């Protein structure tokens, strides 16, 4: 795809942004019907022509006129036809202006409330397909706003926010959309999607206040509104723009007059003035109205926030991102801070366009991600990971042996020696089977797994550094932060110091599983290779070597080994051998035992063990890379 269009079709106003695949940083807003933010209304003329935008509200000779139909999409079947007609009119405008060329390589990303389910979204997409649109995708408006924030240089929150809990609040004209996003994934809430509370209620209050104070014209204005819904809606839109103008800089308007005159052309022109001041602003948020069940905008909004807070089972939001024209109202931020005191509350400089821009960004991100995944898949299907892991396998053997030999001796061999010494084990030859069983049990313990995590983490670092020589360029080529596939960044909070506690090392579940998988493979291989452990009973075993020096005095050199292994040596004689002798002997031969064990693994089972280890570790690293890539794709709302 060469171009990506973001279509934010709102209940009151709509906007379209366009982003080129190459050489464009910020999506540009496209004027439709002469406006970057155009009224969501259409009029069908007797000639069959479709007119959209502000003119559709009051043009003469219209045989059909519709507005504010999106808010009825879930409740009235006829709304789908209205969406299709409006979408077709917008498409015609785009072709007519040259902003869209037929058969060009482009796609549309169209917003919808977060509360719409998959079937509703697919039905919505099919409407645009039937209207003749290029390939289209439906994306949550809240998610699009978040993507816009992540891409915004002004906000500077970056891709890292995808790993943190975020509450996105999209305050539209008829509904307020809450979306809780944890680790980049939307989490369902009982309060979410379309809460029947929008800025349009404020517009109605402002309009009513202005009509009430219009003096002699009041009666005529009311009669026009009663007779003509389009002209009433037109006046509400004018009130909406005045409201947003006032809230964008309340300090300035506290000393200046904020007003706008409009003319209603119905049976005869009627002019009246809309005004905003501090007293009116207070009424917009605190006046109790019938549509809200006798409650005010403030009361319903804060109650919804409290319900969202109570239904979040995970971490509370660290960021609250506001979008929609009403988000410019300073009181909104205050209410959010009161309910979520620890959260940072932000909004875009032009929140009325953040959804459209975010939708366009989603298009380019989608294309970049497709190419990114193709390159990553090619890398994974190659033998590069296996070659890197295989090269470092001998170092892994040595790290595991160095880590485990001393604990096995102290935690297993020493207790077995003591059991023989106290007579619990009758014959020394019996220690062979007992040691095998006890060592296998020890290797399966959680404490052994935790013991291995540190050396394995150390071992992984150079392996990962070599892998990143391939993954970092893949990220950079597709505008993906290079840390997205940086396994190293999850090994520790520092690139220098590697921590040992596996439970505190990793920032993602997949990395923990990677370590656990390597530990499991190591343990399985060691259990299978128990017969190679050099301190097992036998001619060269540690136990026999320690005991031999004493037993030799009683049996003689020729028969020492046979008699010692099979005889039930009296307990008193066994007790002559002190624990310190065993410990001293262990310390003196520890290095030799480790080297012998390592050489046994390396020489006698090298091919079998190395192949298994390479396959296990490479497969898990590749799986982890795939999962990390999926995390990168989260902003697309999949």
Q: What is the topological layout?
A:
Blueprint: E1 3-9, E2 13-20, E3 28-30, E4 37-39, E5 41-45, E6 50-52, H1 55-58, E7 62-67, H2 78-97, E8 106-112, H3 118-130, E9 136-140, H4 141-151, E10 166-171, E11 176-182, E12 185-187, E13 193-195, H5 199-212, H6 218-227, H7 229-247, H8 250-253, E14 258-265, E15 269-276, H9 278-286, H10 297-311, E16 319-323, H11 330-339, E17 344-347, H12 354-381, H13 384-421, H14 431-443, H15 446-477, H16 502-505, H17 509-528, H18 542-555, H19 560-566, H20 571-575, H21 579-604, H22 606-632
Helix pairs in contact: 2-3, 4-12, 5-7, 5-9, 6-7, 10-11, 12-15, 12-22, 13-14, 13-15, 13-21, 13-22, 15-17, 17-22, 18-19, 18-21
Describe this structure in words.
The chain is an alpha+beta fold. Helices cover 54% and strands 14% of the residues. It has 22 helices and 17 strands. The strands form four sheets. Strands 1, 2, 3, 4, 8 and 9 form a six-stranded mixed beta sheet that branches. Strands 10, 11, 12, 13, 16 and 17 form a six-stranded mixed beta sheet that branches. A three-stranded antiparallel beta sheet has the order 6-5-7. Strand 10 and strand 11 form a beta hairpin. Helix 4 packs across helix 12, helix 5 crosses helix 7 and helix 18 packs across helix 21. The longest helix has 38 residues. The radius of gyration is 36 Å and the shape is elongated. 40% of the residues are buried. The C terminus is likely disordered.
